[in-house]
Amino acid sequence: PSSEAAIDVGRLLGTLPPRQRAVMHLTVVEGLTDGEIAPLLGITASSVRAHRHRARRGLERSLMPRSATR
């Protein structure tokens, strides 16, 4: 990927709420499992999954053209 694309992804991740951003970073960049992430953030593994789901949904919405979100 180009450095431009990496900057855009970083910018998009920066729009997420802090907990969602942390979950995505720990999952994607660090490669940790839900069970490893949970104690680091003081939440359950099921909460990790919920935050990741919400983050992905939010990122998908951010990437959709404006006309598709109406």
Fold topology:
Layout: H1 3-14, H2 18-29, H3 34-41, H4 45-63
Helix pairs in contact: 2-4, 3-4
Describe this structure in words.
There is one protein chain. The protein is mainly alpha-helical. It is built from four helices and no strands. It has helices at 3-14, 18-29, 34-41, 45-63. Helix 2 crosses helix 4 (45-63) and helix 3 (34-41) packs across helix 4. The model has no long low-confidence stretch (mean pLDDT 88).
Largest sheet: none
Residue-averaged pLDDT, rounded? Answer: 88
SSE pattern, N- to C-terminal: HHHH
Shape: globular
Number of beta strands:
0
Distance between the termini: 30 Å
Helix content: over 70%
β-sheet strand percentage: under 5%
Structural class: mainly alpha
Count every helix, treating DSSP H or I runs of 4 or more residues as helices: 4
List low-pLDDT spans: none
Rg on CA atoms, Å = 13 Å
Multimeric state: single chain
Quick rundown:
This protein has 70 residues and is mostly helical.
Which short descriptors sum up this protein?
70 residues, single chain, 4 helices, mainly alpha, globular
